[in-house]
Design goal:
UDP-N-acetylmuramoyl-L-alanyl-D-glutamate--2,6-diaminopimelate ligase; peptidoglycan synthesis; binds 2,6-diaminopimelic acid; magnesium ion binding; binds magnesium ion; binds adenosine-5'-triphosphate; Udp-n-acetylmuramoylalanyl-d-glutamate--2,6- Diaminopimelate Ligase, Chain: A, domain 1; 3 domains; EC 6.3.2.13; globular; binds ligand UAG; UDP-N-acetylmuramoyl-L-alanine:D-glutamate ligase; Protein-Tyrosine Phosphatase, Chain A; ligase; alpha/beta
Length: about 475
């Protein structure tokens, strides 16, 4: 139990009705989960308005209500607090409730369209190898040092964030790396967190269903840097068109990294092979098991971050060379007949282009690149034809297939993907709605030395259709299929 007035510290309050000198059991933003003596925070969502569930929350036992608009009929004995913004109030209250846990460790936020999971997971790996207790909040999982919790979001809701950070405090965690998504920033899930530093990876086409315009998407990402304190650092990829924009209004210490231009942290790619790439960072050569130009950026961002957090240069370089690929990011399997299958989480046009560029640069002869790809339902529709175009232009054969259709019609999504294929590429393209059949077809088409790229789902272990998730793991399936087809 906590005193309501204590957890309201720092919240933008407009009016109060009743007493804040009351004890509350927990903070809750979903009326379906309210218990006795909880404080219910009404949040205006994308589907419904939490204010319409105030009565339900009271019936379930809530003793206090936080809202942006006071209800017309107030119930005696209940405390009502009118706030400027429900989402912000929720996040600040969550931080207060758990004792501002972000202050008790060094919290680093990673934002950008692509690379967040890779960078934050590898920083987690690197700091673990360096002997520290580490935390991670990522698309794949939440880690409280060695304890793993399943992730539901890239950036979880404010209560989950602060509860996890408090658990990290109890476990003695010193560093925590967290992905900061644009949805997370826009819904103020990160309000009230104390960051030690923040990293910007890159900005390209994604989530234009939610943010409407690219400028709005960019400005949302920028808010992470605008909100940093003077004591923090802000590290940006200055090769990216929007890298400098991120730092425009930050109070934090500005730091840059780049492969192409002058920057505080610089790297060069000396050699690229399937098994790894040779990089030159700060005049030192480094062998990285992760390949592709985009991973050179990721390695450099990690190197810079580890230095900004006080690790010693030579130790960082040694540990960087030991880092392993993150699940579902360029995860590959080479079959007995020398067919290479690559599973990659490329679900944006830029990521797909990068991965195909990397694969094409490694081709030694006229082996085929067979790409299996689709686009998620209930997500940015405008990226569908663009991804259809990239896949068909940059591969020798393509099988379009479903990727989490959610509530949309799989065949309609596929039509929108196909719409991006230019006339000269149509002969390369097949469409097979069932993802397992699509992967099987790619395996049947492949000859020794060919490369199959299965893009879009990476580490995901499910396929979601109409709210139902069935087990589905691209990597397991392609490995099984290649093995049985080659028997
Ligand atoms: C579009 C979106 O981001 N939605 C998130 C948002 O839900 P919402 O605004 O739609 O909520 P809503 O259903 O309208 O409800 C509004 C409020 O009423 C409450 N409510 C609702 C019903 C009820 O009976 N009682 C009740 O109290 C809800 O709890 C909520 O507080 O707030 C919820 C609580 O935090 C999130 O779970 C939910 O994530 C949904 C599931 C989602 O799919 N989000 C994705 C798009 C997302 O957030 N992705 C990003 C980035 C991905 C990336 O590029 O990496 C991520 O960080 O994961
Ligand atoms: N620095 C990068 N620049 C461009 N593309 C990248 C970069 N790093 C990874 N990618 C590509 O993007 C895909 C997704 O990478 P990752 O999961 O690290 O991104 P993310 O930002 O966490 O994505 P999400 O928004 O879904 O959480 C990878 O599988 C790879 O194809
Ligand atoms: N974080 C991204 C992941 C997309 C992955 C893709 N497999 C899909 O389901 O669309 C999103 O929620 O938009
Ligand atoms: Mg991620």
């Amino acid at each position: 139990m906590k005193l309501l007035k204590d957890i309201l510290y720092g919240v933008g309050i407009v009016a109060v009705n009743g007493t804040t000198d009351t004890m509350v059991n927990a903070i809750c933003f979903d009326s379906r989960k309210v218990g006795l003596d909880d404080v219910f925070v009404a949040v205006k969502g994308t589907l419904v308005d939490g204010h319409s569930y105030i009565d339900t929350a009271l019936n379930a036992g809530a003793n206090a209500i936080i809202c942006e608009t006071m209800p017309v009929n107030l119930v005696n004995g209940i405390t009502y607090v009118q706030v400027k913004n429900g989402n912000a109030a929720l996040a600040i209250m969550a931080s207060n409730f758990y004792g501002t846990p972000s202050k008790n460790l060094k919290l680093v936020g990673v934002t950008g369209t692509n690379g967040k999971t890779t960078i934050s997971s590898l920083l987690y790996q690197l700091f673990k190898k360096a002997g520290y207790k580490v935390g991670l909040l990522s698309t794949i999982k939440i880690m409280i040092d060695d304890k793993e919790i399943k992730a539901t979001h890239t950036t979880p809701d404010a209560i989950t964030i602060n509860k996890s950070l408090a658990e990290m405090n109890n476990a003695g965690v010193e560093f925590c790396f967290m992905e900061v998504s644009s949805h997370g920033i826009h819904q103020k899930r990160i309000e009230g967190l104390v960051f030690e530093g923040a990293i910007f990876t890159n900005l390209s086409h994604d989530h234009l269903d939610y943010h409407k315009t690219f400028a709005e998407y960019r400005d949302t990402k920028k808010l992470l840097f605008d909100g940093l304190p003077k004591t923090a650092w802000a590290l940006t990829n200055i090769d990216d068109k929007n890298g400098a924009v991120m730092l425009q209004n930050t109070k934090a210490k500005k730091q840059t990294y780049a492969l192409k231009t002058y920057a505080d942290f610089r790297a060069q790619i000396l050699e690229n092979q399937f098994s790894g790439q040779l990089l030159k960072i700060d005049d030192n050569e480094l062998w990285s098991k992760l390949i592709g130009d985009f991973n050179a950026y990721n390695m450099l961002a990690i190197y810079a971050t580890a230095q900004l957090l006080g690790l010693e240069k030579m130790e960082i370089l040694r540990l960087l060379s030991e880092l392993e690929n993150v699940d579902g990011r360029f995860q590959y399997y080479i079959s007995g007949k020398n067919i290479t299958a690559i599973v990659d989480y490329a679900h944006t046009p830029d990521a797909l282009k990068n991965v195909l560029n990397t694969i094409n640069a490694l081709r030694t002869g006229n082996e085929d690149v067979i790409t299996v790809v689709g686009c998620g339902g209930d997500r940015d529709k405008s990226k569908r034809p663009v991804m259809g175009h990239i896949a068909s232009e940059m591969s020798t054969k393509v099988v379009f297939t479903s990727d989490n259709p959610r509530t949309e019609s799989p065949s309609e999504i596929l039509k929108e993907v196909e719409a991006g294929v230019e006339a000269q590429n149509t002969r390369k393209v097949l469409t097979i709605e069932n993802r397992e059949q699509a992967i099987k077809t790619a395996c049947q088409l492949a000859q020794p030395k060919d490369i199959i790229l299965i893009a879009g789902k990476g580490h995901e272990t499910y396929q979601e259709t109409n709210g139902v998730r069935i087990d589905f793991d691209d990597y397991k399936i392609v490995k099984q299929l290649l093995t049985s087809l080659e028997k």
